[in-house]
Amino acid sequence: MANPEQALWRAVIAQAIADASGKSDCTTFERRTAHDWLLRSNGNFNRACALADLDPDYTRKLAQQRIEQRADKAAVKSAKATEKSATATPKASSTRLRKGQLYEFGGKRLTILQWAKEIGCTYPVLYYRISNGWPIERALTTPFRKMTRNTECQPAP
Predict the structure, then answer these.
(1) What is the DSSP string of 133-152?
(2) Is residue 156 within 8 Å of 145, Cβ to Cβ?
(3) Rounded to the nearest 10 degrees, how much is the dihedral formed by the CA atoms of 84, 86, 87, 89?
(4) Residue stretches of the chain with pLDDT short of 50
(5) Global confidence as pTM
(6) The pLDDT of residue 75
(7) What is the DSSP letter of 53?
(8) How far is the C-alpha of 50 from the C-alpha of 122, rounded, in Å?
(9) pLDDT for 88-118, tens place per residue?
């Protein structure tokens, strides 16, 4: 049974592992600081392990494994999310558009920027139309009128 001081230092080390592995809600700076404290040789970590009655080398190895496991899980989750967003069809009434979102029309799947180039209009005009709920067919086929001061397109009234 660990005494209260050992329990406290074990909790400090456990929290550092949670922070470094991204398991806790902390800032990137705090995560990086915890990571460095755990995995780089330093007297403070060794002292904390001594106060917790833990072997510093074994604790560091365990921390490294936990951080890597968490990073692997995060990478898989991120890859799945990227794959899902790349194939998703957005709602016509969506006001939040994601960068790289593909829109299908006429057998082609392109981003807003690619569609703008394809139909000869500017990105802001097409983005405006889609983000304001225009169906993709209407957004792409409604005629554009030219501005009087420059050559950029404007949405038709």
Answers:
(1) T--HHHHHHS-EEE-SSSS-
(2) yes
(3) 100
(4) 91-94
(5) 0.47
(6) 64
(7) T
(8) 64
(9) 555 444 456 777 788 888 899 999 889 988 9
What pLDDT is attached to residue 74?
62
Check if the beta carbon of residue 109 is closer than 8 Å to that of residue 102.
yes
Residue 149: exposure state from Cβ atoms within 10 A (0-12, 13-18, ≥19):
exposed
What is the longest distance spanned by two Cα atoms in the chain? 82
pLDDT of residue 150: 53
| Residue of 139, 99, 145 whose CA lies nearest to 118 | 139
Nearest to 14 by CA among 64, 63, 73: 63
> Which amino acid is it at 121?
C
**The pLDDT value given to residue 43:** 83
Return the domain boundaries, the chain.
4-82, 103-155
Report the pLDDT value the prediction gives residue 52, as an integer from 0 to 100.
92
Q: What is the DSSP string of 55-97?
A: -HHHHHHHHHHHHHHHHHHHHHHHHHHHHHHHHPPPPTT-S-P
